[in-house]
Amino acid sequence: MSQFDNVSVTTNANVYFDGKVTSRTVTFADGTHKTLGIMMPGDYEFAASDQELMEISSGELDVLLPNADWVSIKGGESFEVPANSSFKVKASTVIDYCCSYFK
């Protein structure tokens, strides 16, 4: 996940929570996309319409997924989010992440 080749990047940022979470959309030749982002320390709740894979490049957070308990995640680890759900995050450090979407 350190580099993506032959992609398009949307220059306008996706900005959430008063700028505490930002990302850029990366689109691949086959039309699939990912977002690359930064999350500042804080508590957040996100809604997911598609299934998501959140890969954490660096930082530490706790995540609460539907029908689960809080789990600690650190750089080099990932978690999956079911489609049509919401999840909570408690970021204790700056988080560098990549989110993949599946229909």
UniProtKB/TrEMBL annotation:
Q: What does this protein do?
A: Catalyzes the phosphorolysis of diverse nucleosides, yielding D-ribose 1-phosphate and the respective free bases. Can use uridine, adenosine, guanosine, cytidine, thymidine, inosine and xanthosine as substrates. Also catalyzes the reverse reactions.
Q: Which GO terms describe its cellular component?
A: cytosol
PANTHER family referenced in this protein's UniProt entry, alphabetically: PYRIMIDINE/PURINE NUCLEOSIDE PHOSPHORYLASE, PYRIMIDINE_PURINE NUCLEOSIDE PHOSPHORYLASE
Which CDD domains does the record cross-reference, listed alphabetically? Answer: cupin_PpnP-like (cd20296)
Pfam families linked: Ppnp
**What protein name does the entry list?**
Pyrimidine/purine nucleoside phosphorylase
Q: Which InterPro entries match?
A: Ppnp, RmlC-like_jellyroll, RmlC_Cupin_sf
Gene behind this protein? ppnP
Asked whether the keyword Secreted is assigned, the reply is: no
- Entry's family note: Belongs to the nucleoside phosphorylase PpnP family.
Output the SUPFAM superfamilies linked to this UniProt entry: RmlC-like cupins (SSF51182)
